């Protein structure tokens, strides 16, 4: 579809004239009080609101013409429609990625690195527009959304650099006439399935290392947040990444997922999302014995000891709990506080939570946006009701926000116990459940009493305790006196049912590489 037709189509959807809209490059993050409809129209005008899939470098509709609506979670308004693709489009995207692999993988690391670096530069140059897209379709406050763009882009920059460091080995031979080498080679086509809570960063931390290694990708973003993925894909083309290296399909999740996991041409599945879907994909990938990386659900404990610095603990807990309105897999799900500091912490924490400003992500000073949809609000409500029915007390919030729809009040619950639903499963919302403990051993027991093992946090000023507890926690990530620990330079991933493999850092490259042993025999050196 041409840009002009896209413009008409989107204009019709949002019932808004373009007349008063400033040009894209005059829009800055300070203008966050602009309303969502104007921003959507402006993004459309400047070509950032793509509404087709990308297959083999061509913007593509669903073959049967079907579409799905993409809605603003804060208002329920339709932003645009995107193709509802399925198995046929996915198979074509796989074929394109397969064709592109032979030339992309043969490029020098330096050439791939340059393309990635250019992609990073474009993301940073357009961070306002990408941030606006994230707020539009996902709801998080614009400042946080632009933060996600900078974080997401950092994976592209980091892996542009790592592309040049895919070293092999020479192994001392056991026989005089042999020489033994280890080569590292790209796995091939990668099926990339991502969720809605970080519409950009969950893609870049998979696609960055994949492309750096020489792989090509078929991305399936969440059907709730495809627009950021499409804009990022457009920037990949502008960066000179060849057609077919990055493909994007969206629509029927299980049809697309089936096509990706069953195709013998796809050699790797990388997924971030629910544990249930992750298990399904892992089982499906067994048919063709693919490599699989999974970033699944968490149930993060945040353990606050009596000897914690209260201000540090408050700041860290607030950040890890209420980031993205509690919708991240590393958000504190259980705040486990030692008895000596419990009352003091509960009261100071409740005061801090009370000051969180709830509203549309484009509103000035908003710290808490909407939840992603009605189902998410219902889940939060049911968890809170379950806790109250089993004896938890509401210190703050505990109900839908006056703004209605997808807004839920930032909530603090006390007297929470380990057998409540909210302690067993991820609430994925702005609810902070406080549990109490007496001894360090008891705290470790509560923290590890879950099938999940992604992130954990501890707050203490005792150095020995911080080492002891960090080592005892069955988690892939431990924050000590820090609530926000994710970075492109450190490995992200979980123990137990929180997943397989690591993303980010030098370890993130290994997921997209095969190891090949080459033996040169009968060298006859004499
Ligand atoms: P969440 O609960 O966070 O939405 P999901 O696991 O449902 O987590 O979704 C994460 C990603 O997985 C999304 O892109 C979604 O469309 C996709 N997905 C959901 N079901 C399937 C499936 N059966 N096969 C492949 N992908 C799926």
Structural account:
The chain is an alpha/beta fold and 526 residues long. 40% of the residues lie in helices and 19% in strands. It contains 17 helices and 20 strands. The protein has helices spanning 3-14, 36-45, 87-104, 109-125, 127-138, 142-162, 201-213, 226-238, 253-262, 275-285, 310-322, 339-354, 374-389, 421-424, 440-448, 463-472, 505-510, and strands spanning 53-55, 58-60, 67-71, 78-83, 169-171, 179-186, 189-193, 216-220, 246-248, 266-272, 291-295, 300-304, 332-338, 393-396, 411-414, 431-437, 455-459, 477-480, 499-500, 513-520. The strands form five sheets. Strands 14-15-16-13-12-17-18 form a seven-stranded mixed beta sheet, sandwiched between helices. Strands 9-8-7-10-11-19 form a six-stranded mixed beta sheet, with helices on both faces. Helix 4 (109-125) crosses helix 8. The longest helix is centred in the N-terminal third of the chain and has 21 residues, at 142-162. The protein starts with a helix and ends in a 6-residue tail after the last strand. The structure holds adenosine-5'-diphosphate.
